[in-house]
Amino acid sequence: MINWEVYDGCYPVLSLNGTGCDLLVRSIDPSLFQFVYQVGNRLAGSVLLGHVPARKMIRVFVGYDPREAVVFHVCVQSLVKYSSRPLAITPLALNNLAEIYQEDHVDGTNAFTYSRFLVPFLCGFEGQAIYIDGDMVVRGDISELVGYLSPGKDIAVVKHEYETVACRKYFGTDNRNYPRKNWSSVIVWDCSSAFNSRLTPEFVRTHDGAYLHQFKWLLSNDRIGELPQDWNWLAGEYLNNDSAKLYHYTLGSPCFPEYASCQHADAWWRDFNEMIVPIEATDDI
Q1: Rounded distance, CA 41 to CA 217, Å?
Q2: Mean pLDDT of the chain
């Protein structure tokens, strides 16, 4: 006899009642239901499959540069604030990656210019993951992004088409135009794709910025899915957009004095203040 029950929003608990030995199975993979059912019948035992999260945790990798560590923490505050699902947030800090990756590139504005391409490797080339630059604040539910990675696509990005309004940006870096500029600042990854399996630490270390940031390892533009522009709104480059779901301070975050009052800086300062100042207790909390 097969009984299905649901406990606390988890996947259904499968109980096979019979005689003989009892077998307890717990798994985070619902695809094992059929396997457990077969084992249960074969053993004529009692099988329990339970305590499985109804929706899997989302892996989010965030670019980290020690010269502007505060922007990473504000970004994380915004991620946690708006997400409806549990997040596994990983900073892409080069000192954390020292055992597997040596950064030999000498170009790039920040310390995460190239480490973002290690995400599939860091995920064991399995499942999905999201990458975002650290100089962002999220104003929507990041879990929405996983729904935009369609079958047959290796990544999904916002496909910006613009020319910058500023010749220089934070840290005094040259801000030049180039194909697919800022496409790689928000990426939804299919880490298990055959093309993305090429992205080993050695592969990333030995390929230049134009090759990686233009996703040339994918060989075909058809492999690149598209995210809504609201999920990578370029503050200071685009017009005001109070409904955007992610602000990207690509010219410079408000933590820098010269950008403290930049476009949409209020959203950044709001999350910054919530991060450093306890919210007073109210009847609503």
Answers
A1: 47
A2: 83
